[in-house]
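Quick one: structure for this chain?
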Amino acid sequence: MPLWNIAVFFVYAMRRVECPRCGVKVEQVPRGDGKSSLTTSYRWFLARWARRLSWKETAEAFGTSWDAVFRLLQHAVLWGLARRELKDIQAIGFDEISLRKGQSYLTLVYQIDGSMKRLLWVAQDRTEQSLRGFFEFFSAEVREGIRFVASDMCKAYLNVIAEQVPKALNVLDRFHIMKNMNAAIDEVRRTGFAELRRDGYEPILKHSRWCLFKRRENLTEPQAAKLDELLKYNLKNVKAILMQDDFQQFWTYLSPSWAMRFLDSWCEQAKESGLEQMQKVAKSL
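Got it. Here's what it folds into:
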């Protein structure tokens, strides 16, 4: 227990009582619980610091071990889980984080209601089973109260959302939609670069990647000049970037019906464009 930033140690042997009815019991003390050698106040003190520092830094700064920091955080999480209320959850969001280099992920589920934003669930991997475990953990009453689900375009997520909360509105992440769009444009650009290089026009597409990705109002003068140069040629990547520019209008609609009408029109245009990459984007939408 820290007092005025001075480490204070209590040496006390808790008494054991043999009860005829309950068996052997250890006395309860107000400053601690269980077999932990850390007092309750010290555990919460370290838990608050572990939110600011890494676990290793917390252990080194306060003269304890990494294992002790891990155990006290585990205690804090279990304490919170035992006391949290799961009523009136109307909006949730799914995301994943990478644990390390390679295909190693955690699936995270958040409550994102206007009055409450908190982490609800963590699962290994980003598979259908990892997300299905979240819905199976909560009662049918909680699931039925969910009205909005925000997610990226991961097929595993979309399948489970349609299966578990079919009445909820699935809101796709704008970032991932445009990420897929940019990936398609980059693929078109690389294909066009290879074709121009074969025909002896290699310099035209050099340093053109970012002028194709950026919105027109965000282009620098050299990038705007490069884009104007590209527009002089009847290239596939020019068609793709014009389609991307056209799609930006989608985010300006306030009426769902007009937004849907525009999206249907854009997807039909993408299917007739002859660009396989843009057709894939339209299919995903």
